Amino acid sequence: MKLTRPQIKIMLEHTDSPYIRAMGFLYLRMAMTDGYKELWGWFEPHLGDKEEFTIDGTSSTKTTIGEFAKRLLTDQDFFGDRLPRIPVLMQRQIDANVKAWEAEQAKLPAQPAPSVEPEVQPGSQIGSQNEIQRAHDDRNEERDSRRERDRERDHDRDERGSGGRERDERRERDRERDRERERERDEKERERKREREAERAKEKEAEKEREREREKERETEREKEREAVREREKLKRKKQEVHTLEAKIKLLRKTIVAKEDEEGITKLL
Predict the structure, then answer these.
(1) Could you give the CA distance from residue 162 to residue 125 in angstroms, rounded to a whole number?
(2) Share of the chain above pLDDT 70, in %
(3) Contact (Cβ atoms closer than 8 angstroms) between residue 138 and residue 130
(4) Per-residue model confidence as pLDDT tens digits over 140-171
(5) Ramachandran class of 161: left when φ > 0, alpha when ψ lies in -120 to 50, beta otherwise
């Protein structure tokens, strides 16, 4: 459900029931997630509204329109349900605006309590239509009077001129400093993250280099082992060649001895 601005304004200023007005404030708080910057502008004119109602129909939840609107601005839950989160900087600004508004209200003279619509008792004179209408008119008149006082107060605040402007400028400078500090914190955090990533990359590269050195050492050891094997094989072949040569020499000696014996026998004959 998407309400237009005129429809929202009608709900907030409805004269028939405070519950319609409360629904309007609740709609703004929960549905206008893309317009938090406008929340204060909608709520501020009604923070001093003294019209009473009970949230769930019991006396323990009795409150006023103004207190209800203020609670929606400053609290994060509504009877156990979490309200949409207002951005931190915007919530800080709203809280500061509420405190400034309360301080300004404390300086104002006390206002008379608003007229309360009398309870209708069946069969009694006070329950007549005329009494109900008069009570309704009194309540509307009080509300109009209260809004007129709010407008006059806003006008007087504007008339104070440079003081209000200086305060607004000071608040804007404070907000800008907060934004700048937050940007600096974000930039420092990003810089620390980049440094950590660079350090991790350097450590990984160093570990790779150490692994390459270890691999070179292992390859050197393997090459030494292969060279030792080749030397052993070479020595073995030489030993075999020596054994073969010795065997040939022995055979040759036997042949020579046999021939000499044969020649000696021939001479004797």
Answers:
(1) 56
(2) 77
(3) no
(4) 666 666 666 655 655 555 555 545 567 777 88
(5) left
CA atoms within 13 A on the CB side of 125: 0
Greatest Cα pair distance, the chain, in angstroms, is 182
pLDDT for the residue numbered 83? 86
40 closest CA partner among 115, 84, 100: 100
Q: How confident is the model at residue 76 (pLDDT cuts 50, 70, 90)?
A: confident
Let me know: does 75 contact 84? Beta carbons within 8 Å: no
**In whole angstroms, what is the distance from residue 139 CA to residue 144 CA?**
9
Contact (Cβ atoms closer than 8 angstroms) between residue 183 and residue 189: no
Beta-strand pair 77-78/62-64: unpaired
Question: Nearest 5°: CA angle at 17, between 102 and 45?
Answer: 25
